[in-house]
């Protein structure tokens, strides 16, 4: 039998998983590796926080790594390397917008599992009939209660899942307090910057480039939408204490002046057509000669800023 199963922490670079790691390290509990799965479309503030906390982990002798899903089969499309450029390529929205769960399996879970499958401690553990312990940062808030209930129905013969924050009875407020006691800045809620689960105040905090990408993404997907309005699916009228909002984030951006009306109009009218023309121009080239979606998107942002 394995003397001690190796322990991996799934770190989302948000409040809960960060507090979980801090608390377990301070208690002297083993964490053999911390993995962050980068979708390429995290919030700007999340990318700023990642090196800050990795330095904290380095000082506390906690190993960490960043993993990524690597698309390979682009068919006739320009190459893409992020969840955001994947959505723009396919003229669609994240699966959560259609009520089908999240994008985490492909862009979060699978890259971590692929990395772990090549990790010597995991290979040795599995070879001896053991299971790797995976730490998940679900707290005791109502939202995470639902996520936990769903996760409890999932079994994987390679892993034992542990939920330390639930063992401690911690809420999100407890997690924030723990991060502050460690002398670290509190990170933003972990999600892609176009996540359908974002609340209005999170949209308010986005950068101009992130807002422009959302407008482009919804405009690009609109001709194919039949049952939803956009990333937020359907309007919320505000009953029962809910914050009123439209069904698409573009309308919210326009209503609250996060981008000028003329810029929103210009993106909606011109950018999807320009993107389709770009894709068509790349389709006839060998894949190694095609310009990437990331480069096109950079040019799009430069053009909007100059305009």
TrEMBL record:
It comes from the Bacteria. SUPFAM superfamilies: Adenine nucleotide alpha hydrolases-like (SSF52402). InterPro entries: Rossmann-like_a/b/a_fold (IPR014729). This is Phosphoadenosine phosphosulphate reductase domain-containing protein.
